């Protein structure tokens, strides 16, 4: 969900656009603002919260539930910093800790 190269724009603007696109995609995938009781309140620890969002993003239909409250950047964290934290957690979930697809 990232736009192709747009000539005539700065690297910083392109990076900002990509962060916005990632945040929009996560928000829409999480239900677009619907609050789920099953998701519970977001964790306050940034790394743990990012890890849960990353695990969910690998399998949004699995057993991990999150909603828009989890997607919103934690207090004191920029959108860019939040996307970076989720990306770091996503990369670290590629091994044995990665969520397995739901059985069908």
Description:
The structure is a single chain. The chain has 104 residues and is mostly helical. Helix content is 48%, strand content 0%. The protein has four helices and no strands. It has helices at residues 11-29, 46-58, 68-71, 79-92. α2 (46-58) crosses α4. The protein is globular and about 45 Å long. The model is unreliable at 95-104 (pLDDT under 50).
Oligomer: single chain
The helix content is 40-55%
Shape: globular
The number of helical segments is 4
Largest sheet: none
The residue ranges in which pLDDT falls below 50 over 5 or more consecutive positions are 95-104
How much of the sequence is in beta strands? under 5%
Give keywords.
104 residues, mainly alpha, 4 helices, 48% helix, 0% strand, globular, disordered C terminus
Brief summary of the model shown:
The chain is an all-alpha fold and 104 residues long. It is 48% helix and 0% strand.
SSE map:
Blueprint: H1 11-29, H2 46-58, H3 68-71, H4 79-92
């Amino acid at each position: 969900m990232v736009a192709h190269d747009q000539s005539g724009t700065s690297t910083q603007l392109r990076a900002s656009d990509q962060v916005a696109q990632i945040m929009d995609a996560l928000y829409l995938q999480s239900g677009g603002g619907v609050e789920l009781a099953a998701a519970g309140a977001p964790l306050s620890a940034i790394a743990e919260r990012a890890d849960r969002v990353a695990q969910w993003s690998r399998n949004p239909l699995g057993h991990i539930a999150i909603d828009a409250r989890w997607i919103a950047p934690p207090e004191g964290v920029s959108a860019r910093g939040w996307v970076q934290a989720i990306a770091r957690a996503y990369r670290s979930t590629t091994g044995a800790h990665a969520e397995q697809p739901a059985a069908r």
